[in-house]
Amino acid sequence: MKGQSHIILALVFALVVAIFSISNIQNVEVNYMFGHFKIPLVIVILGSVMFGALIVFLVGGWKFIKMKSRLKNLEREIHQLQMSSKKESVVDVDEQAVKVREEKESSI
Q: What's the distance, CA 35 to chain centroid?
């Protein structure tokens, strides 16, 4: 359900941007360090939205990769702790068996 709400919100946002862009079709002058050029405002708006979405995607992807790596490390640590716990319980059982055997031998 959470994923569907995100998709619906993204579509609504895209629709609002598209309507806003279409209503602004006049040419604007874009200045940058080495010159300037004229371009329709709709392209500037859509380009800005796409560039912002790309930045969000890259930052989110980076955080996702870091979280996935952390999850793998934690799962590995849990597995190691479970194995060491099993080894300790086997050692405890062996020690108890030795004590029982010693008690039986000493009582005979």
A: 40
